[in-house]
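Q: Convert this sequence to structure tokens.
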Amino acid sequence: MILISAEVGPFRSINSAQNVEIDPDVTVLVGMNEAGKTVFLKALHKSQDALGKEKFNPTDDYPRKDYTAYMKRHAAKPEAATTLRYRLNQDEIDQINNEFKTSISEGFEFSIIHRYNNGKTIGIHVDEKPVINVLAGNAGLSSDATKAIKSCNTLREVVAQLNEIDLNETDTNFLAELEARTTETDWGSVIQYEIWEFLSEKVPKFLYFSDYDLLPGKLNLKDLAQRVANVKADPSNADRHIQPKHQAVLALLRMADVDMDDFSGTTGYEELKAKVEAVSISLTDQVLEFWKQNEDLEVEVDIRSDTNDEAPFNDGPNLYLRIKNRRHRGVTTPFDQRSRGFIWFFSFLVWFDSVQQQLDPSGAPKHNQLVLLLDEPGLALHALAQADFLRYIDDLAKDHQAIYTTHSPFMVNSNRLHQVRVVEDKSPGGTIVSDNLSGSDARTIFPLQAALGWSVAQNLFIASKNLLVEGPSELAYLLTASALLEACGEESLSSDVTIVPVGGLSNVATFVSLLGANGLEVSVLHDFSGKPEQKLDGLIQQKLLAKKSVFNVSQFRDASKFGQNTVPSDIEDLLPIGIYLEYFNKTYMKELKGAPILESELPESDRIVHRIERALQAREIKVRPSGGFNHYAVAAAFSTAPPETLDEATRLRFGALFKSINDVFAS
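A:
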């Protein structure tokens, strides 16, 4: 089961509900400071936190400007804080169909509305007719009972119908069992209730983690024990007694199977230290699987008293955590004073493993039971270390969906922009969460632009096979089309070919010289104006480029003339006109004022972008001051939310293009 969408709001800075599509693996929330990224994560966390401690509180959580008005209706009509939608996997669907005799289909979805009074509304629809058909086939039922059952659409109707006719002994027993099922719930659909009871324990819970949850360098255990006792006596004020650092140490002790009573003097020092050290060593080994910046680090644990320290550390035993650096002859420093990135890794693993252990003390793995909410992870890491951390998140996402916030370009996979959601604080609407990259503030999407730029710069001297294209639009269309063809089992662009946008044909010579000087293979794909490109011909004559390595889009537009120059063409002309218009109209919905451009009003021309520009002129619409429109904005919309598949003709065109490029690099 996975979370597929989350509608959040009104909640704190989110004044109006924001419906956000959640990626099956990793979702990245990108935005400026104070935009509302943490607010979104907190709303999810309060919906169903892993340990069942978080609750919605209108005083803290409802948008303050509307709080007074809302509280007048809160008791009678509590609003929704979040609406979460989930999709079942095929194994879960098969299990439900086998157990409940239903016929739910692939991709079955249901929703949970979490309200400000901490109540839930379940949105689930299951047809009871297949269940009734199975019941009607029970052996021993009379013909009258069978006929009555078949005439019904719900189990409650079956009960009502059977109570109206004469029944034999088998019929009576059957009715008694069915009445017992119907009296267990006041839901209209008994089957929907029973399936929800089955699913309720499987719904993924949320685990939130931030810099506030880091382990401290030392903590007084007597003080910690007193705080735990205070929480038991005054649970309503638990947050006042137990701070995040206390929670982190409790998590470490819990993993080590150490109870607070063990510090009363009945358990020996060596035994306590051995338990905690064993866990620390195991966690350090896990961290170093992904921590490649310094693999000579390890965590040391000590438990001792120090009457000369300041209060409260001078009273009773203290837990000390230190980092040893074997690279510097075993020098140790307090845990909270060195290598913030390492501390984050270690602290997260402590908290993550502790929560899993609390959910299932037996230690048996429960895949996909958690959705990980990581607030600004890797913030203290070096840029290259953040790349290591992305691998770690991908590893977590094999079993648990992950949603994380960032404003670092190095925490964004430039080849997975479809996972990005931009978060902005706009007046007067408050926090807005969207997957529309093209309509976002330049400051908000700067990390994405920087990530793309870093990818290009990095690949210039690392990738051995480079396909030069004119701009980022080509990059977006080619990557997206390649992924769609690969999903269909058809030929896609080889994974070892790097697409490099060069900013126009005028820059090709420079890039060819740079790449060629490094002994790298180069191919070029460019738009076709209808006549030979002199710059490219010059490169071929100088033997900086092989003629067979230069392609233009027109050569793949007409299936009957693949490989031949045809009519003037841009990369957009490889897509169906209707598909391109759909994304154009979606991108410029506001400027078009709800009146999309139709294919029937496009003037005749070879290039779709020129046809649209002329249609805009005919309507006297300017979507930007300089005229025309931003081609990349449409490309970004296409790559962010691509169609599920491409039609056969389009797949044929892109397939021929990818095969030609792959063949050049393979020869």
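Residues 509 and 536 are 8 Å apart (CA to CA).
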